[in-house]
Amino acid sequence: MSKKAKHHAGDDGSKVRMKRQVYEDEMRRLHGELVAMQEWVKATGAKICVVFEGRDTAGKGGTIKRITERVSPRVFRVVALPTPTEREKSQMYAQRYMAHYPAAGEVVIFDRSWYNRAGVEHVMGFCRPEETERFLETVPAWEKAMTDSGILLLKYWLEVSPDEQTRRLQSRIDDPRKVWKLTDMDLKSYSHWYDYSRARDAMLAATDTAWAPWFIAGADDKKRARLNIITHLLSQVPYEPLKPRTINLPKRQGPKGYREPDLPLRRIPTPFGEL
Fold it and tell me: What are the boundaries of the region Disordered (predicted)?
């Protein structure tokens, strides 16, 4: 067993908790690769669309945050659409999502996507059964049109166990830092575990295609899930690091008579001190 693998499993093959430093070291390396990918996307005009789906608490938001925290928001855009307006409800279903597709030099990440129609809308009765059936019939062609236009489409389903979902929801209830994440819809959805399982199964069966396959990520362990997903995402993009630029700071101009003005500035209190 490699030295790296020893961080992932015990002698009996059981999972052990990944050490924070190991996790951060791996994440630092992956962040460097994401920056290299970003520069390649900008230089080549690539168009990348990444979809994250999964049950409530599966870790979609945390994974997206780690993907985007060291890259430019001008290249990596996160789309998390709210409940559709009355006007949007009257539009063609795909219409409000198409407006957010990537242009050249962009990576667009959907935190939930058009697959709401196969998931929460279907399970919670926000659309008619025939609307879900029609969606599942048409979305492969819709996604074929995306990929034919030059968009690299990556779809991830984050899978969380019922016990882990319960633990995470309870932690949101008990932690004032997380309670904002707990919505009424989360509570309603919690009791529909097997309805969501059936909806997931139907969605995967109908929309896993050669041009837009689904990639399943076990997400009970958040650290490992994030590292695994980012590693896989990088493996799916045919980027090559660009030649590093030689960067030298220019000489700073002289003051040319400038003096700090004596203004009545309102400085913030410094209960923690300042240098």
Answer: 245-275
